[in-house]
Amino acid sequence: MLEGRICFVGAGAMAEAILCGMLNHKIVKPGQISVTNRDDRFRLDELVYNFGVVGDSSQKYRSIQEADILILAMKPKDISTALEEIRAYTSQEQLVISVIAGISTKQISEFLGHQAPVIRTMPNTSAIVGLSGTGVCAGEFAKAEHIQVAREIFEAIGLVIVTDEEKLDAITGLSGSGPAYVYYLVEAMLEGGKAVGLSEQEAKDLILQTVIGAANMLIETNESPAYLREKVTSPNGTTQAGLDVLKQYQFQEAVKQCVVRATERSKELGAQSSVTLKKQ
Ligand SMILES: NC(=O)C1=CN([C@@H]2O[C@H](COP(=O)(O)OP(=O)(O)OC[C@H]3O[C@@H](n4cnc5c(N)ncnc54)[C@H](O)[C@@H]3O)[C@@H](O)[C@H]2O)C=CC1
Ligand SMILES: O=C(O)[C@@H]1CCC=N1
């Protein structure tokens, strides 16, 4: 169990995924968690109703002030306004954990204007089912004990890799955004299944089992994806015919460039926020 109070600043999809994962894994009680956002009290009511957390918009600053851990979960474009509004209610005694794409620990410290320990993370929405892959790194003022707290939170919602901050943009482009790439593939396979005469339900059931089966094969056999692919591919068989079409459309290069571009975008989001900070 984690001790103390946790306050989410930003109460959208990612905040919900993390708090849902933490509660499912019972590392905190609902009463330890507060949720705050800019001004949408209906959204807070929804989280209070669904999870039993604390979400009284009239107590926003008090929730922030009384928190031991602040989890920053607003969009990168909103961080400067958000921290400008709340920084007077934050202190160096608090641990600040960010899930925001592209924003460095140094930028967060500059926005806060004090030396609170900052941990930058990049989870993904599979946190809801306890299967996030999360990259975690420490900022200048964070110590091993702070990494340990972040590890405890994010291990409750999946796998954690503690790493250097220079890798966080890459983790954002690979596994932060990664679930969307897999869903996109599933969408395409659904269309394929329907094009060859399966019903939507038949195609969906078979695709999901195929994705789960392939993921489990990768984990349990510890074989490379290339080796496992070759085992499926009989010479001149059906898989070979299908993969030839993927090659024709440069599937592997497209996916590689997708990760590269998403990583670049993470860096751009950070750079855009620095510009906002300088203008203040
Ligand atoms: N959705 C995803 O798959 C992932 C998102 N992230 C990161 O998580 C962060 C949040 O993303 P989502 O939850 O998807 O966004 P969202 O749009 O669902 O939620 C954003 C929340 O921030 C709040 N907010 C906006 N301005 C604010 C302000 N000035 N003060 C306080 N709260 C404010 C909004 O009211 C909303 O509750 C982003 O920075 C994103 O980069 C990280 C990993 C995965
Ligand atoms: O698309 C985004 O910017 C966020 C960050 C990682 C996943 N979603």
Automatic annotation (TrEMBL):
It catalyses: L-proline + NADP(+) = (S)-1-pyrroline-5-carboxylate + NADPH + 2 H(+); L-proline + NAD(+) = (S)-1-pyrroline-5-carboxylate + NADH + 2 H(+). The keyword Nucleus does not apply. It comes from the Bacteria. Residues 5-102 form the Pyrroline-5-carboxylate reductase catalytic N-terminal domain. GO terms for molecular function: pyrroline-5-carboxylate reductase activity. Residues 165-269 form the Pyrroline-5-carboxylate reductase dimerisation domain. Pathway: Amino-acid biosynthesis; L-proline biosynthesis; L-proline from L-glutamate 5-semialdehyde: step 1/1. It is found in: Cytoplasm. Its EC number is 1.5.1.2. Pfam families: F420_oxidored, P5CR_dimer. Belongs to the pyrroline-5-carboxylate reductase family. Catalyzes the reduction of 1-pyrroline-5-carboxylate (PCA) to L-proline. This is Pyrroline-5-carboxylate reductase. The lineage of its organism: Bacteria, Bacillati, Bacillota, Bacilli, Bacillales.
